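Reader question, answered in our methods column.
A reader sent in the components of a multi-part assembly and asked whether the whole thing could be modeled at once rather than chain by chain. We filled in our standard form and ran it. Here is what they sent:
COMPLEX SIZE: two components
ENTRIES:
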Amino acid sequence: MWKFLLLAFRNIFRNRRRTVMTLVMVGGGVAGLLLVGGFFARMFWGLRESTINDGLGHLQIFTAEHFNREEKHVLDTGIDNWRQVAASVSTGGHVRGVAPRIEFYGMLSNGVKSGVFMGSAVDPVAEKSLGFSPRLAVGRDLDAKPGGEIEALIGTGVARSMNVKPGDGLTLLAVTSDGALNGIDVQIVGTVNTGYKEVDDRYLRITLPSAQRLLQSDRVTNLVVGLDATENTDQVATALAPRLNGSPQHLVLKKWIDLAAYYKQVRSLFSTIFVFLGIIVFFMVLMSSVNTLLMSMFERTREIGTMLAMGTPRSWIMALFVLEATLLGVLGAMVGVAGGNLLGVLLNHSGIHLPPPPGTTVPMSFRVLHVPSLMIGSSLLVIVSLALASILPAIRASRLQIAEALAHV
Amino acid sequence: MDEIVGVESVSRRYPLDHNCVSALDDASLHVCTGEFLAIAGPSGSGKSTMLNLIGCIDKPTTGRILLDGVDTSQLNSGQLTALRREKIGFVFQTFNLIPVFTAAENVEFPLLVQGVPSAQRRDRVAAALSNVGLTDRADHRPDLLSGGERQRVAVARAIVHRPALVLADEPTANLDTRNATQLIDLMRDLNRQLGLTFLFSTHDARLLAHADRIVELCDGRIASDSLAQGGSHVEVLASCL
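And here is the structure of the entire assembly that came back:
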């Protein structure tokens, strides 16, 4: 078996120029997949972390009713005893902190013009402890304990529309939990650029006590749980679930992936593109290798005839060709993995930036992740592709008529 | 002596365009163990066809071939492969060594195919290379060997598994006089010392002169056989030359 492997290995290097060309082609395919896949992986990772750190958190706690029915009044399906729940959850392993939130909506006015807002009420201290910092365009973040005025952050689109800047005032109007209309005056302390124009045109953020005063309720919409690492999400979710069972309300725990619809859409789209690229590389390697391996077979016709004449089983001849192609695939994959990773390092240090992705306003840095599973997958793809490409030449070689093969010039 | 090869009324016809060309026509030949037999004749007389049929790498159109008592026409492809592997050694005009293998590895190949254990293979390869005087060239690849050395490696490869029959198709055709003479002497020595049966095609007078028996082919038919002429092949040799 060792000699047979040796024969296959040496046969690969008979025609060095052709082998180098094949290795470049196969390696190029693998390197291309690694770069594209590594870029996508980095993009997925970046999108995942930015989605989580922009405020989604790793886990969120809601009442079950929040998903089962529409609210009759604001905070109708909110969490009552959120302080006890937050205290219980925050003692769990890997939990960095818990931030209560109220999601609400209403109208705002500068005195001469009014518009709709989508509000988010937060505890600035809890948010900061979880690393959830709003992307300030100008001004500062909310103060946890403001002196007098109720502070607010607004989206850059809202500021433009209302013609206000930090230091100016706005009036907020919202329906309370009892169904009455209530209003408060707020002072703008900063504007926020979320990266999404549609959000920036409606965004408003105030402190939790301010929102509870506006909405006349002690409830919160949800609790956002931040962990030490995204990879611990499943483990912590499993561990925390029993702690929620003691609450008078039926509470449910949602993982970030369940709430990140945009992330899932992007990932699905780019994964499909990557699979398509993989299919192209597979067929590219397959078609070009069939030709190369057939040439190799024709050049060795007399030698194959000699081996058959000496009593070599035809199955051995087939196996030899498949083995040679597989070894070539392994070498090509090694070249591709080395080349792809080297190019990845160079690109990561090049400082290239890409234009902002659709729907965002922030340029994206071009970075490539070195993903072991991608290296293994891409390598297997070309190895299988080359092994399949060798089947036709292998069958032809094994079916040669010995006398004719020996007379081949 | 026992009969090792029996060719009985064998014909081999090949289709060529819309016609049929007869390479061998109703030929019969019987070879005994230990013979050193030359098949002579001009180009196109059917020498290689005869060797191909005896070597089980081609099938007769009519007639049958017995190899060591086995009727080869009754064997399937796998059995013929096994028969070639066990009973026959081949020497080709163009050496046909595996270029990526060293001399020793080339000689080892038939044993590898037979599944001989590694230690035995090593000993038998060393013995075969010693028989052909190439012990010091064992680790050289064919492209670093002279034509004569390559053909001696080919002979070592043909005898390493101790076949019942060695078939050599014009073994001296690509060799100069010195190397051809050395090869003829080598084959003759192996025939005498090891009792190997050699059956070779040639029109090389140097080789014919050493043959025990000469069978002359002409237009696919056996024109003469020195055995039928009382063992003396002077007349056959004269007609071949």
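What stands out: The radius of gyration of chain B is 18 Å. Residues 177-194 of chain B form the longest helix (18 residues).
Send us your own complexes using the same form.
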